[in-house]
Amino acid sequence: MKGKKLARGFASVLFAVISLLYISPILIVLVNAFKKKIFISSQPFTLPNEKSFVGLENFQTAMEKYGFVEAVGWNLLITISSVFVILICTSMFAWFITRVQSRTTKLLYLLCVFSMVVPFQMVMFTLSKVTDTLKLNTPWGLIIIYLGFGAGLAVFMFCGFVKSIPVEIEEAAMIDGCTPVQTFFKVVLPIMKPTYISVGILETMWIWNDFLLPYLSLDRNKYNTIPMVIQMMQGSYGRVDMGAIMACLVMAVIPIIVFYLSCQKHIIKGVAAGAVKG
Asked: What residue spans define the domains of the chain?
């Protein structure tokens, strides 16, 4: 018994240290967001003092000089719209290919799964050319692009969950006079709530923090997301506004951390539900 208690105590201490190591970069960014630029470079691990403390000056610079507020607006629009489109389209598609068993639906499912394996670097240059040609270099066009890249994981998880739903429930709804669309939205969709929440959380975290897709697709003279604004803060000849960058990182990270912490319990539940095969 003593040996088990010692092992548990050692494991607790070990994981606590590992947790602190993971959290430390966020704490360092938070501390440096309130310091002058020169002290961020020379004393990055010290707390702000009378000489280095600048209050909210870095945050004001980020919002007024670099257009951070506008970037937050575009980020919210793209993230919310993209996640909504991904959830609705992929859940309906997953329900269809799971219930309609044919070679075509099996091929479509394999293509969705295969899309998760293909490295993004293989298609990034082609993607940039296609978006310019089809005039998808707007936030609304980017929503379509996110649907394509986010469909693989979403369809995989939704298909796993749909297999666990008894077909008899849907047949009963059909007998009561529901059309296939009504059956999906009134019967299937409420049952799929755990997977909806899980997929929604994962897609939100990905799209909110994504840099490459907006950078390659959007017209940077008109639209900039938060990661793009942070990247633009590095001027010519290596000049970097570290104070504004730290402030932007804090304002960008805190909302997604709060969102994740408030919804994390649903991730395991949704993944476990999607792993059940009927």
From this structure: 56-274
Please, where are the H alpha helices in 100-192? 103-115, 124-133, 139-162, 167-175, 180-183, 189-191
Residue 74 CA from chain centroid, whole number = 15
Cβ 154 vs Cβ 90: under 8 Å: yes
What is the rounded CA–CA span in Å between residue 39 and residue 57?
14
Among candidate residues 104, 101, 105, the one with its CA nearest the CA of residue 93: 105
64 token code pair: 């007024």
Q: Which CATH number fits domain 56-274: 1.10.3720.10, 3.10.20.30, 1.10.630.10, 1.20.120.10?
A: 1.10.3720.10
What pTM did the predictor assign? 0.83
Residue reference for tokens 């951390």: 257
Count of beta carbons in the 10 Å neighbourhood of residue 219: 14
**Region of 118 on the Ramachandran plot (φ > 0 left; ψ -120 to 50 alpha; else beta):** beta
CA distance 252 to 182: 39
For 224-255, the pLDDT digits (tens) are 898 888 888 776 445 677 888 888 888 888 88
